[in-house]
Amino acid sequence: MKLDLGSLELGVATAATQIEGGDADTNWHRWAAQPGRVKDGSSPARAADHWNRVDEDIAVLSDLGVRHYRMGLEWARIEPEEGVFDSTALAHYRHELQALRRAGITPLVTLHHFNNPGWLEERGAWTRPEAIPAFLRYVKRVVTEFDDLVTEWITINEPNVYATQAYVFGDWPPGQKSMGRAMSVMSHLAQAHIRAYMMIHAIQPAARVGVANHLRVFDPANPRNPVDRVGAATLAHLFQGAMLDAMSYGRFRLPLTGSSSVRPGRYYDFCGINYYTRSWVTGAQEGTRPGADVNDLGWEIYPDGLARLVGMVARRYPGPIYITENGTADGADAFRPRYLFEHLRALTGSHAPVERYYHWCFTDNWEWIEGERPRFGLVWLDYETQERRVKESGWMYKDMITHGGLTDEAYARWVAPASLGSSALI
Ligand code: BGC
After folding, report:
1. Which of 18, 112, 156, 367 to mutate to test the pocket of ligand 1 (most atoms within 8 A of CB)?
2. Helix, strand or coil for residue 94?
3. Which SS3 state, helix, strand or coil, does residue 209 take?
4. What is the DSSP secondary structure assignment for residue 237, as one 8-state letter?
5. In the predicted model, what is the mean pLDDT of residues 327-355?
6. Where in 127-269 does DSSP place strands (E)?
7. Phi, psi of 110 (to 5 degrees)
8. What confidence category does residue 193 fall into, taking pLDDT thresholds of 50, 70 and 90?
9. DSSP letter assigned to residue 21
10. Which residues, judged by CB distance below 6 Å to any ligand atom, belong to the binding site of ligand 1?
11. With bands split at pLDDT 50, 70 and 90, how would you rate the model's confidence at 59?
């Protein structure tokens, strides 16, 4: 055996807006309708048409031997108008969750994954504290509704990425550039998580609830230069450190602000990590390490970063760790097998209490402003015909699930011929 996964369980992840298709009224459907916002002009209305192909997709999950599936709900479908819940949408998700259960697949359900209903967006979304009670009303409805089918929840996906892209860089909806607003958004999202955590536990005492935290490694370009070192530490605090403490422990440090409705405590049953890359910091500027192996989007592929992050999390946030996303844009499926092997090797070698690894993504999907071009899936998607085809990396994943690790034969077949840094697209 080239790699023994021990008790680590493998799953796959998706998000509602990125795979469902259809015309839900979300911030993203509105954004994609504006010319020039999405690089290839595509919209989430097509995506993987998963809304109409749920049963087919669950059959593919079963073929792959997947037992853990992270999926998202589309809030705008469930609550298309403020305070009005759509029984057809709830019935659809019930059908999906029941079918997953019947197939022996445990769902881990994300309640918010960058996707706001249009009515919330019009009212300033998360810049305003009123978003919190609106979110809690939706969470209460959903958790009560699916009490018999779901016990594992992610309240919010990557609040730091959402706040930064939407309110600092302004290239995600609503396209604003205000550091102050970004900090209010992060603060409100952290407060919303804590209150949702408490609410879910009041409904389901045995539930497992956490956040999918986007964590990066921030390294100084020149470790001997104090300016680079301070820059890296400051960016890490602003982007992820302050948020992790706020959401996990209700400890709000500047520039985040708390509220009298949240108190210090412990607000996670697992710490979720979405890991993709490292930031290479020069002064206050982040970039990509020169000469690094990169994926089709130019992101450095840095497997050891995952081991470093789980080590940090295990020290500061004791308890189970779930890798809630890890994956890569590889249109040719040329280096994904090696990517998988090296990241899983880094993970198992870390000896941190990592219980789950969810690969991003199950299928190719609509990648926000990058549109349909980057391909993160273990399953190939033909957007025109909606045909699905398991990629070689998908078969390798199945093989690892079957054997609890990577056999010598699997290594020779899939990993040995693949090298990192063979991106065909950039
Ligand atoms: C997000 C996903 C996204 C992935 C790849 C993560 O930041 O949660 O929605 O598709 O990265 O970019």
Report:
1. 367
2. helix
3. strand
4. I
5. 97
6. 152-157, 208-220
7. -95, 130
8. very high
9. -
10. 15, 18, 157-158, 161, 214, 274, 325, 360, 367, 376
11. very high
